[in-house]
Design the sequence.
């Protein structure tokens, strides 16, 4: 049973992390209002991936802990769960809210120049994405090396 849960855990990680890593790549290539609108609508559609993958990742991670209860005594395991909850809050709650705000700002914009309010909102989202990506890297390190 344990190996099947690990398999689902890995698939969930790939699903969630692929989307997380792509957010900054997609947004960094958009330069005009219409490009940003398209990029944000794409991110809005793919926002389900971190939500589903992340939730499944958390549930399977906890299931692994219940199957192997000694994991709850391991610092790397507990830290991974705590850090992952931060990632989940960022990508399931804060980033989608930022995307909606940015889309609203762009709907009010005429022309192709990006408004300053959008740039400020995008900087906040980029900062959150950076924190989440760094946290994901730390979680991966903890899981691989189990210090």
Sequence:
């Amino acid at each position: 049973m344990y190996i099947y849960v690990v398999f689902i855990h890995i698939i969930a990680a790939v699903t969630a992390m692929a989307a997380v890593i792509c957010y900054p790549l997609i947004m960094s290539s958009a330069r005009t209002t219409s490009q940003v609108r398209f990029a944000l609508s794409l991110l809005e559609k793919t926002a389900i991936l971190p939500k589903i993958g992340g939730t499944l990742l958390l549930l399977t991670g906890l299931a692994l802990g219940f199957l192997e209860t000694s994991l709850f005594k391991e610092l790397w395991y507990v830290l991974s769960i705590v850090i992952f909850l931060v990632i989940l809050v960022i990508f399931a709650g804060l980033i989608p809210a930022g995307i909606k705000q940015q889309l609203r700002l762009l709907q009010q914009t005429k022309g192709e120049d990006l408004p300053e309010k959008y740039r400020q909102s995008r900087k906040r989202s980029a900062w959150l994405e950076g924190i989440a990506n760094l946290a994901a890297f730390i979680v991966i390190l903890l899981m691989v090396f189990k210090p």
The longest helix spans residues 75-107. The mean pLDDT is 89. Residues 2-145 form one domain.
